[in-house]
Amino acid sequence: MAETKQFKAESKRLLDMMINSIYTHKEIFLRELISNASDAIDKLYFKSLTDDKVGLKKDDFCIFIEADEENKTLIISDNGIGMTKDELENNLGTIANSGSLAFKNENTSEDIDIIGQFGVGFYSAFMVAKEVQVRSKAYGSEQAYLWKSEGVEGYTIEECEKDSVGTEIRLILKDNTDDESYEDYLMQWKIKSLVKKYSDYIRFPIKMEIAHDHLKEGTGTEDVPAEYETHTAIETLNSMVPLWRKNKSEITDEEYNKFYNEKFWDYNEPLCHIHAKTEGTATYDALLYIPSQAPMDYYTKDFTKGLQLFSSGVLIMDKCSDLLPDHFSFVKGLVDSQDLSLNISREMLQHDKQLKLIAKSLERTIKNELKKMLNNDREKYETFWKAFGLQIKFGIYNGYGVNKEMLKDLLMFHSSFEKKLVTLEEYVSRMKEDQKYIYYAAGESVAKIDVLPQTEVVKDKGYEILYLTESVDEFAIQMLMGYDDKQFKSVSAADLDIDTPEEKAEFKKLADDNKDMLTAIKDALGGKIKEARLSERLKSHPCCLTNDGQISLDMERTFAAMPNNDQNIKAEKVLELNADHAMFRKLQSLYENDKEKLKAYSEILYTQALLIEGMPIEDPLAYSNLVCELMVNQ
Ligand code: ADP
């Protein structure tokens, strides 16, 4: 009697969910088992290419399904690589994809999500079976083993008889209930339709003995009533041709989407598919998809990019990261090329010239597809942008500008123009004749930027402003430097360069006249600002903060929010004052008559400017005291 072993805790939980599953698509168990069988065959087939001892040719490999109605047992067997005793123990005793459980609680209504999003592999068998038996003989080993389990209580492993290498899985089906007829899974029509539905592109034949009724010879005539006899024949149920090898004209959008849903475990429709067939310097078939939503872990370090890599139809790598640049890491799909050597190792692949050519060509293809979407289907592109725009902007920033030519036309920003998302091309096409720069303003949100005092004069001139709401935006813009010969300019830039020559001359005179007062304000604020200046940009507000140098106020805020911000990077702040505002005249009079009060006013104005910018104020208590004092003395 074999010893009963316990499942690992997580496996037990998953198993328990499977057994008590209320999931409506229990039928996916067949897909999961067939996929496992196909993976196992892939492994042995791959070996057979370099190892004569395997003794099987491509056509010998197959998955076989058998329904034993009498014993209510469904049998799925393969002549793949098989499992050793240890592998049976480790692979079937422990759930492989434990990450899928990690974020879920034990609420049964959550079952559906897990199954829908991840697929649950082998354990899904327990949705339909009360007992599962796995007989397996690993390639290269003499002894076969039987793994057996009736569910959460545990499993046993013992030696068994099995002639050929491979795995046979027997599902002793659950008893029918009022809602569920498990016996249906023994019906040939049911099995046929499930294979077509879920496993049609499995590259190895999925075979089954199929019974057909034929008219018995000599019957069915005028004199002899019809009699039928049953013939059986082994048939292949799947079409096997990989979707990407078919002609585009033969494939419907539905088929493309279905393939995506099943292969990449995303139950949303993809935004678009790209089916590329290329010959020339790099010969390959590629089937790529742009998802409509970012996966949950997309913007975390857990996410790994990559495409499946096939060499003439054999999977050689599941996630080949070298095929995708980081800025297009959201793309899912596969590449099949005849030019790659099958025996290539992961390390060699990184240096493979062919692979690099394919990657370059894919990058261009993806870019063109996105550009096409932007031009032809704005709504769709905006959905894309919402999900992955951040990644494109990071792409410009991270590559120290090397990717800017590739990515600049894909960028979108909010804008003062009808508060819509706009491209740089659109912005430039709308620029006024006398407008020298592409103006931008950075802040937390469109609403907050829209009321920033610094935007007043630019708007007043009728110039459009890009609203940069994400912290990476300004970094990306600085990396870009310009677009179409036009330079970017922040509305907060010291040299806004927006006035006419007459206005400039007038401004200079006013600045000279007030030079001493401005110096006094700067001194009053200690080292907090680099300078106090008259403002070219304010219309109705008394003051605002801007910056000299490369670090903007918004960047200072971004740096401050970063962990390990040891360097304490600060903007060189400039307090700008509006000479047309009544407050300015008040300051002038204080400068003449009450220097002490000028100091307090300077402090209050500076703090207010910080508040408007959404910056933290250094000493809230001191500020509050100053304002209170002012109110009391009013
Ligand atoms: P996954 O397929 O996601 O890895 P499963 O739970 O479906 O998870 O299977 C666990 C492991 O068991 C597989 O990764 C594989 O190593 C092994 N396995 C399952 N079915 C077979 C089979 N038919 N032949 C060989 N190995 C198998």
Layout of helices and strands:
Layout: E1 4-5, H1 9-19, H2 28-48, E2 63-68, E3 73-78, H3 85-93, H4 99-102, H5 111-118, E4 129-137, E5 144-149, E6 155-160, E7 166-173, H6 188-199, E8 206-215, E9 228-236, H7 253-263, E10 272-278, E11 284-290, E12 307-311, E13 314-320, E14 332-337, H8 346-350, H9 353-376, H10 378-398, H11 404-407, E15 413-415, E16 421-422, H12 424-429, E17 437-442, H13 446-450, H14 456-460, E18 465-468, H15 471-480, E19 482-483, E20 486-490, H16 501-513, H17 515-524, E21 531-534, E22 543-548, H18 553-561, E23 572-577, H19 582-593, H20 595-613, H21 620-632
Parallel strand pairs: 2-8, 12-14, 17-18, 17-20, 21-23
Antiparallel strand pairs: 1-6, 2-3, 3-7, 4-5, 4-7, 5-6, 8-9, 10-11, 11-14, 12-13, 15-16, 15-18, 19-20, 22-23
Helix pairs in contact: 2-6, 9-10, 10-15, 17-20, 19-20
The protein binds adenosine-5'-diphosphate.
